[in-house]
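Reopening this ticket.

The earlier resolution said the output was attached, but the attachment link was broken on my side. Pasting everything inline this time so it's all in one place.
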Amino acid sequence: MFAVIETGGKQYKVKPGQRLRVETLKGEAGDSISFDKVLLIAAGENEVSVGAPYLEGKAVSATITEHGRGEKVKIIKFRRRKHSMKRQGHRQNYTEVVIDAIDGQK
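Inline output:
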């Protein structure tokens, strides 16, 4: 069984028990959250429900495990023959969650 959810402007394919890093969410570690923007749920080869765009009444429940910051991404802008170079770094915040159940099923 798997589902496709949308959070933070991105889509994720999730299964129960999976650890997932998503854009920062409100809540503390140990809090339970629910993703209600479910695009697709597949229970088997012939049991697929697709939303238009979302499935109504369906949800994916998860537990927040931690908040953190990702690896540093280095950005270098270099202009040849101009004696010009700009260096910059960025670390994106994230929230790590564990998927508990899809639509109330374990």
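Reporter confirms the inline version is readable. The chain has a mean pLDDT of 94. Residues 2-102 form one domain.
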